[in-house]
Amino acid sequence: MVSTQNRPRPVGYKPGVGSRASRVANFVGLCLLALVFLIPFYLIVRNALSTTEDITAPGWMWFPSEIQWGNFTELFNDEKVPMARSLLNSAMVSVLTTAGTLFLCTTAGYGLARIPYRHADKVFYAILATLMVPSAITFLPSFVMVSSLGWVSDLRGLIIPTLFNGFVAFLCRQYFLSFPRELEEAARVDGLGYWGSFWRIVIPNSKGFLAAIAVITFVTSWNSFLWPLVIGRSSDSWTVQVALSTFLTSQTVNLPQLFMAAAVAILPLVFVFLFLQRFLVQGVAQTGLKG
Amino acid sequence: MAVTDKTADPAPAAAGTSRRPRRRRTLGGRNLAFCYFVGPFLLGLIIFTYIPVGWSAYLSLFDARNTVTPTADDFVGIDNYAEMLTNPDFRRSLITFTVFAAIIVPITFASSLGLALAVNRVRLARAFFRSVFFLPFACSYVVASLVWKMSIFAGVRYGMANTVLGWFGIEDIPWLFGNDPPWFWLVIATLRLWIQCGFYMILFIAALQQIPEHLYEAAYVDGAKPGWQTFWHITLPQLRASSVAVLMLVLIAAYQAFDEFWNLLPNSGNVPYARTPLVYLFHTSLGTSQDLGRGSAGALILALLIAIVTLFQGKILGFGKPEGR
């Protein structure tokens, strides 16, 4: 883009613009697709605020005959459904996982990028090797380890094994390699060591990158299912995804309550999307393209 | 953490007091610094990745039911591997994965690229469209499965798909309960497409914005028609690196498919008609039989398979070249 601004454009060339008809068609098509993409969200809200009779009525009802706000309190008052507990578990797991991953992976990434240690290459390859096999495949080996540590049905088992994310450490290393060295040199002259310049110079100047990694880690952690299912053997260690799945696969379901639970489960992430989308988009671009 | 180490690094708090002599960086100081920066992570990686994989490899040689410390009597050698490789259920799970990948990889690729092109081209409300298509990424597979199973593709009259078909006089279809025809593939493919399409669209949009405008100008001067011709000869070649990245990410994600299969399809029924490798392993090792030996063997076979595919693909497609950034 920058380079084109200094030069005249070829006569008659209009960037990225087709005929008027095709532009209108493009816009209309996108509007229709957007509606289709929003249908599932609409269904969650509609069903969450309906009665079972409205949902299962023989004729399709676009809106509930009367909005049932009471479904919300009913969900949290139902003793068979540990909704409050599982939300709390999910919040704790996601927040601690994000904080821990960020701390461990940024320090490791910085050390690998900046400290000229003799065996740094070998350490880096040991981390790279773990990227070849997705962590989901190794759920069984990890379970063997966690169960012998006695961390089954325990928040420690849900959180700690997921912190040592080779991929995030790899991303951090790549990022710190491109961090301007001059800033750190200045810190060195002022007498700061690696640790000091990392916390006082590098971290405060990397907020955008850290926010992107944090948001993507949080979303992944909140939505993860297989590992919490493996570890959450008793209902007081369920995350919200495991709780939802248990209702979904149980024999009798209360439809409005089920959808109310789904609405509550996605609410935190809808907020993340509304307020932090910039970082999320940045995080996706980073995690996707550098991997 | 090793923050207490004062010999290698002056405490940051002391830095501002007065001018202090510049510290000579000894080799020992560097090594120590590397230890406390990388050490904790490396230790965790060893404890939670390397040791478990080694332990699993050990267990896979034993008849280890319900135990992680089998005795020497239970040693069975490579029997677990032989049994897994000849086990019809395990093989069927690999076929399920293959079918799934063959459906989901091309569809996801084409849709996310198409969406990216359309969103990149629109002038009005571009940010809005981008957000709407990306929003499903906020949904977990569990939540999406819930909506797909209980509302959109509920096999009864009040399901949305059946309602719409009903307007055209078509009978109710039992989307998820039956293998003939296998309608469940439609349910599973649309679900994953809905969640991940926007994610890859973001990647493609980022790449599209990197394409220098002067390429299109040159094409115009050379008489290329806007539309298919410029797309085919300019846009697509310029997206090569991102296309490779997206194809690989979609495929690797498909290998790990578990959530929607677990939540949508009957697990314990007599007809487990579509189990992915992970679902099968879950049942073998953590289901009623708790067969950790055979489960471990299966997990290692699968891990090896993925590592080979990843390396192979990376070699062939030149993944990780500098242009990929």
Task: Show the helix and strand layout.
The complex is a heterodimer of chains A (291) and B (325).
Chain A: H1 20-48, H2 52-55, H3 70-77, H4 83-114, H5 120-131, H6 139-148, H7 155-159, H8 166-177, H9 181-189, H10 194-202, H11 207-223, H12 226-231, H13 240-249, H14 255-290
Helix pairs in contact in A: 1-14, 3-14, 4-8, 4-11, 4-13, 5-8, 9-10, 11-14, 13-14
Chain B: H1 27-59, H2 79-86, H3 88-121, H4 126-134, H5 141-152, H6 160-167, H7 184-208, H8 213-221, H9 228-238, H10 240-255, H11 259-264, H12 277-286, H13 292-317
Helix pairs in contact in B: 1-13, 2-13, 3-4, 3-7, 3-10, 3-12, 4-7, 5-7, 10-13, 12-13
Distance between the termini of chain A: 26 Å
DSSP helix fraction of chain B:
55-70%
Shape of chain A: flat
Portion of residues in helices of chain A?
Answer: 55-70%
The pLDDT mean of chain A sits at: 86
The CATH superfamily title of the largest domain in chain A: MetI-like
Q: What is the total domain count of chain A?
A: 2
CATH topology of the largest domain in chain A, by name, is: MetI-like fold
Domain ABC transmembrane type-1 (chain B): 94-313
Organism (chain B): Glycomyces albidus
Family (chain B): Belongs to the binding-protein-dependent transport system permease family.
Membrane topology (chain B): Multi-pass membrane protein
Characterise this structure.
Chain A: It comes from Glycomyces albidus. Chain A: This is ABC transporter permease subunit. Chain A: It is found in: Cell membrane. Chain A: The chain crosses the membrane at residues 24-45, 91-112, 124-146, 158-176, 209-230, 258-276. The complex is a heterodimer of chains A (291) and B (325). Chain A has 291 residues and is mainly alpha-helical. Chain A has helices at 20-48, 52-55, 70-77, 83-114, 120-131, 139-148, 155-159, 166-177, 181-189, 194-202, 207-223, 226-231, 240-249, 255-290. In chain A, α4 crosses α13 (240-249) and α11 crosses α14 (255-290). The longest helix of chain A is centred in the last third of the chain and has 36 residues, at 255-290. The two termini of chain A are 26 Å apart. With 325 residues, chain B is an all-alpha fold. Chain B has a domain at 95-270: Orthogonal Bundle (MetI-like fold), CATH 1.10.3720.10. Chain B is built from 13 helices and no strands. Chain B starts with 26 loop residues before the first helix and ends in an 8-residue tail after the last helix.
